[in-house]
Amino acid sequence: MHETNLATWEHSHPFVPDRQRPGERRPLIVVLLTAATMVVEVVAGIAFGSMALLAGGLHMASHAVALSQAVLACIDGR
Fold first, then answer.
1. Is the dihedral of CA 27, 32, 38, 40 positive or negative?
2. Could you read off the pLDDT of 5-36 as tens digits, one per residue?
3. Is the dihedral of CA 27, 31, 36, 41 positive or negative?
4. How far apart are CA 71 and CA 78, in angstroms?
5. pTM of the entire predicted model
6. Would you give the DSSP letter of residue 19?
7. Cβ contacts of residue 39 below 8 Å, gap of 6+?
8. Where would a tag sit more exposed on the chain, N or C end, judged by fewer CB atoms within 10 A?
9. What's the count of helices (H) and strands (E) in the chain, helices before strands?
10. Tally of CA atoms within 13 A in the half-sphere of 73 that contains its CB
11. 3-state class (DSSP) for residue 12
12. Contacts of range 25-33, beta carbons closer than 8 Å, 24 or more positions apart
């Protein structure tokens, strides 16, 4: 059986979980802005009887859910 010394290929991966990186807050801001727009569209769609605004707001909900995954990835990556 062939044995190989892998010590020359090893390296460390230092993780610093206490330090917040500059780009971690941006996805959260985008999700909050998207959710606020979604609420405004849904409320306006109901208030004015507009199916287009209501559909746009519900479609925006799918975007908010998808973008929330980026926020969770930032939190989980710490």
1. negative
2. 887 888 877 766 666 666 778 888 999 999 99
3. positive
4. 11
5. 0.67
6. S
7. 57
8. N
9. 2, 0
10. 9
11. coil
12. 27/67, 27/70, 27/71, 27/74, 28/71, 28/74, 30/67, 30/70, 31/64, 31/67, 31/68, 31/70, 31/71
Nearest C-alpha neighbor of 68 from the set 25, 30, 19, 39: 30
- Copy the structure tokens of residue 3: 């044995």
pLDDT tens by residue, 48-77: 999 999 999 999 999 999 999 888 887 765
Q: How many CB atoms lie within 10 A of CB 22?
A: 6
Domain ranges of the chain: 22-76
CB atoms within 10 A of CB 34: 18
Gyration radius from the chain CA atoms: 22
67 within 8 A of 30, measured Cβ to Cβ = yes
